[in-house]
Amino acid sequence: MKSTNRYILTPVRFSRARHCRTRPTSTSFLKFLPTVIPRLRDRVFACLQSNNRQFILVWPVAVFALPFILAATGPESAGEEPSVPPSVTIKSIEATALADDTPLPDLDESSTIDDYLAYAALRNPQLHAAFEEWKTALYRIPQARSLPDPRFNYGYVIREVETRVGPQEHRVGFSQVFPWFGKLGLKEDIAFEEANAAKQKYDAARARLFYRVKDVYYELYYLHRAIEITGKNMKLLSILESVARTKYQTGGALADTIKAQVELGKLEDRLGTHEDLVGPLSVKFNSVLNRELDAKVPVPNTIVADSAGFSDGELFESLIAHSPELKYLDYRASKESYSVELAAKDFFPDFGFGIDYIVTDDARNPTPDSGKDPIIGMLSINLPIWRDKYRAALGEAKSRYRAVQAERRDKENQLLAEFKMVSYQLRDAERKMKLFRDTLIPKAQQSLNVVQKSYESGKSEFLNLIDGQRLLLEFELSYHRAVANRMQRAAEVDMLIGKPFSTSN
């Protein structure tokens, strides 16, 4: 049996380490900046000290060219990987789960349910959409932990003003805004929790997909078995109808022939219903796999369906611990708790630091400091004086947190109630499997053999033979219905828990 682990993401809990991995671009101008900037700085100060007028005329050209230089240092392509935590990179996720070059399993007569699950994991568009949503959340992490872009300012003095040391001609400055202490960390925590929640949505989508595949697969199994068993019974009933017709021609009762023909007509109707249902179910199955709708779906003749080797208590514990829907709401609640902390920090100001450099020409009347260029350090803060706005934002964040907590409690109650019903249906199907397989079918077969021998010896009526044949058919169909139900309910248990938990599934 082929394993689907290579096609399925394993649960990942993202680390909150506040560091990133840089990934330089070979053709990017940025990799030269560590060497270019010191050399440029030394050249600038050398020119200023020598009062090089040619350098002063270059400033407007440099300022005009700066945006184009920064644009040229952008990503080489839109698909370039951003800086994300080393333990959870976009490339590693794609390589693990949904890489385009991963070969699709061959689906033929020997294919198992694991092969179909692997195929669905690689081809289903809904699962791909959930995967891309997860990647989207990961891309937000480096954005959340980054400082705002620094600002470059340039001013040209159109009308010069004479100062004691000379006329000022150009003004160049850089500034950077720093959020209040802890804001960036909280924004990063929020982005991490959003990514974790997106991961749980992906896991839930994968679990639902696997349930859909298994549900239709086992329904097709039952239909094929029902068609096979009904066809065999029709052949046997046709023989009995021929025998009854022969006896009628030799003086037997016409009622036996009519009864056999009525039963044969009922079986033909049942067989036609089963055969007609195979087509729509096959289309539904192929649509889940995202392949040609008319592709053939090979189904096994037998399925091993043993009794579950776990208790309801173990199932409940696993549901609470592993359900992706509950874990999704847990991460959302964690995210909202960080949002409350972030809203509380909006009452404090953000800081801005900067430096300005003013290019000054020589004074008309020479002085000791003639032509000396001033350097200005700057500090700025925003003033969060509209307290009502920030109090409202804090109240909003707290309400969202309480809403998610209430939603989580309601979801847990819903899942436990649904889980209890599914567990009952699973146990009921297992009980019926054992009853039909070990007791009713052997007894019905034994009874039919006795009635058949009695009918051949003339000691039993034809009606008893028909009833015995019909009873055996119903028991055989009920057994395979119970097998399919058991496997479908076991698949539903796995979907609710979010991982394979049931046996023989």
Report a brief summary of the structure.
This protein has 505 residues and is α+β, with helices and mostly antiparallel strands. The chain contains 11 helices and 5 strands; from the N terminus they run H-H-H-H-H-E-E-E-H-H-H-H-E-E-H-H. It is elongated, with a radius of gyration of 38 Å.
Describe the protein's architecture and organization.
This protein has a single domain (5-23, 81-146, 179-348, 384-497), classed as Outer membrane efflux proteins (OEP), CATH 1.20.1600. Strands 1, 2, 3, 4 and 5 form a 5-stranded antiparallel sheet that branches. It has helices spanning 33-49, 53-72, 90-96, 113-123, 125-144, 183-249, 254-289, 312-322, 324-345, 387-456, 462-497, and strands at residues 151-156, 162-163, 166-178, 351-360, 375-381. Mean pLDDT is 80; it is low at 1-37 and 51-89. The protein is an alpha+beta fold and 505 residues long. The chain contains 11 helices and 5 strands, in the order αααααβββααααββαα. The longest helix has 70 residues, at 387-456. A hairpin with a 2-residue loop joins strand 2 (162-163) and strand 3.
